[in-house]
Amino acid sequence: MITIKKAEAEFIREPLLGPFGFKGKYVDELWQIAVRLQTQNNSAVGLGVQSILWSDSSIFAQNCPSGGNAIMFAMTNYAVKLATGYSFHTPEDLLDYLLPKVLDYGKIISGNPNMRTTFALNSLVPLDFAAWILYAKENDFTTFDDIIPDDCKLAMNFKNEKISRIPLITYNFNEKDIKNMMDQHDFFLKIKIGSDPDGDNDYRKMVEWDKQRICLIHNIAKNTSTPYTENGNIPYYLDANGRYPNKDLLLELLDYADQIGALERIVLLEEPFDELNEVDVHDLPVRVTADESAHCEKDVAKRIQMGYQAIALKPIAKTLSMSFRILKIAHQKNIPCFCADLTVNPLMLEWNKNFAARLQPLPQMKIGVIETNGHQNYQHWEAMESCHPYSSSKFTRIQDGVYHLDNDFYTSGGGIFENSSFYNNFFKIEKG
């Protein structure tokens, strides 16, 4: 048993380079959270990034940006209090104890009885990571492979030597920005759709905006080839974040994509509908992917029954513990998975890379993939990179749109079990 003797949480605010648009809204900063857990013999610092708009757009709409962030951090701090003195065998046990209590607490302090489970999971990420680091230390584990649960080992038995970086094309990317991205040899394009161009929630304007967006990007990318896909084409990954109200509007967009020759390039279409709008998607001509709606194993099983054919895993947004459980169900159903981003910092990216590196490549892909867009969005990205204990290592660098993962990466875990003096310094001052 592992007993937490002391637990504490801190945060800093990281500004973005500009407004970051998705779900028809924009954010301009992200709170970076650190949680330290201590046992009798060991301590560990886990990191998190709060994304209020992604995790529950209703909480975002009901509060000012700082207010929404304050609610989530209060939930993290509440979890820290609950964890103090608690004993657990594995971090999954700890999550089972904390999640229902933290979600109920969040509903009370937000005044929103319908708070999404993902909001609570987002708040628990730094504590969960700290628990996994403690778990490794207490059991003398030194690699990510050591901590993979037995029922996930078969699903994570790959060791990709290369994984493609998936950058993000947000609403405010112009033609020059997209061309610059292509010039950097990024070849797997994640495209945010579902814009609210005039801020009036007019769905007709939304779908027309999305058509023009796909047309612009396709005209830039259609003549570029890549050696990393089966057909040599640049793949598109559309992310609607639940913005489409019905299948008819979505089919209109996909019909348009077909007319301009872009439909065959769309390898993933993520969360076209709000999770409460339970639309069967078996008949859609693209691989529909679950992200926000896949809170837990039960949700994943339901989405698969509805025709969803891929799952976006987010250890950095829904906890590593829950991601293992979601992967297990998806693997049993032969549903491909990949790791998506939450605009995380460089050290959190290594947790996602460890997970992504061990997954079978997506259909049509010859190598693994991982979404990462922090380098595109943070004002102080280079300074944040310096907080990474392996910041100068080869596996942290992109070459022609690809991370090269050598033996150093797999034996070191990318630095996830190492101390970062920057984040450890959050807790140097003992509070009375």
Structure characterization notes:
The protein is of the alpha/beta class and 432 residues long. It folds into 2 domains: 2-145, Enolase-like, domain 1 (2-Layer Sandwich), CATH 3.30.390; 150-415, TIM Barrel. It is built from 17 helices and 16 strands. The chain has helices spanning 52-55, 57-62, 65-83, 91-110, 117-138, 144-147, 175-183, 203-221, 247-259, 297-305, 315-318, 320-332, 346-357, 374-377, 381-385, 407-412, 421-424; strands at residues 2-3, 6-22, 25-38, 43-49, 87-88, 162-166, 168-169, 189-192, 236-239, 266-270, 288-290, 310-313, 337-339, 368-371, 398-399, 402-404. The strands form 4 sheets. Strands 7-8-9-10-11-12-13 form a 7-stranded parallel β-sheet. The chain has a 4-stranded mixed β-sheet with strand order 14-6-16-15, with helices on one face. Helix 3 (65-83) crosses helix 4 and helix 10 (297-305) packs parallel to helix 12 (320-332). The relative contact order is 0.14. The model has no long low-confidence stretch (mean pLDDT 95).
